[in-house]
Amino acid sequence: DAGVIQSPRHEVTEMGQEVTLRCKPISGHNSLFWYRQTMMRGLELLIYFNNNVPIDDSGMPEDRFSAKMPNASFSTLKIQPSEPRDSAVYFCASSISRGSGNTIYFGEGSWLTVV
Amino acid sequence: SQQGEEDPQALSIQEGENATMNCSYKTSINNLQWYRQNSGRGLVHLILIRSNEREKHSGRLRVTLDTSKKSSSLLITASRAADTASYFCATTTGGYSTLTFGKGTMLLVSP
After folding, report:
1. Residue A37: beta bridge partners?
2. A56, A82, B63, B86: which one has the fewest Cβ atoms less than 10 Å from its Cβ?
3. How many angstroms separate the CA atoms of B98 and A101, rounded?
4. Closest partner CB to B99 (pick from A4, A50, A104)
């Protein structure tokens, strides 16, 4: 299995620009997560999808952030407009949801720098 | 918000020594998991321990869970330079499938 695939791996963009991060979960997984990692705040859950439906988006920082999952094999996280404080590593992860005890598989992350 | 808090924040040892990392959490959990993150990479699952278990082993890893103290420990025996990484505990609570992570322990194993 190829694992969770994220793109781009690295992105540098100017403040105000739109950023779109992409994720392909592991085939057969029905739960998808977007996490953000910074030195100051550690790993934060942004949003959680189950069977393509957003279940918990309470971690999405503000309206500038949006996430979609149009089908079981693709998700996007969009930041518009981007700000320097959005600079972080954004991880996509997936799992098979069977109640408690799920192992979550992470992608390699998208390293975002907003200048 | 962080549910788990790892201790110490950083740990430096020599190859062959054992490394012990601790995790404390605040609310009742369904299970607790440990993950490893190599520099510049994603997180990799190491081991899961359920709330009704007290100890679990996997290779050189030993995890304990004390629900009365709301704490867990990860022991890596006979450490190797390749064990150098950050280690995170993560918990699931209630009916959710999501994981809440601590800030991690940075482990440095010197040859």
Report:
1. A43, A89
2. A56
3. 10
4. A104
CB of B15 closer than 8 Å to CB of B111: yes
Residue positions counted in chain A: 115
CB contact under 8 A, A43 and B101: yes
In a 10 Å sphere around its CB, with 0-12 CB exposed, 13-18 middle and 19+ buried, how is residue A55 labelled?
middle
pLDDT tens digit at each of 115 positions of chain A: 689 999 999 999 999 999 999 999 999 999 999 999 998 889 999 999 999 999 989 899 889 999 999 999 999 999 999 999 999 999 999 998 766 567 889 999 999 999 9
Cβ pair B18, B76 in contact under 8 A: yes
Residue of A nearest to B32 (CA): A101
Residue B73: both structure tokens together: 């420990």
- Closest approach of chain A CAs to the CA of B30, in angstroms? 6
Using a CB-CB distance cutoff of 8 angstroms, which residues of chain B are in contact with residue A104?
Answer: 45, 99
Cis amide prior to A81 (ω within 30 degrees)? yes
Q: Could you give the CA distance from residue B51 to residue B69 in angstroms, rounded to a whole number?
A: 12
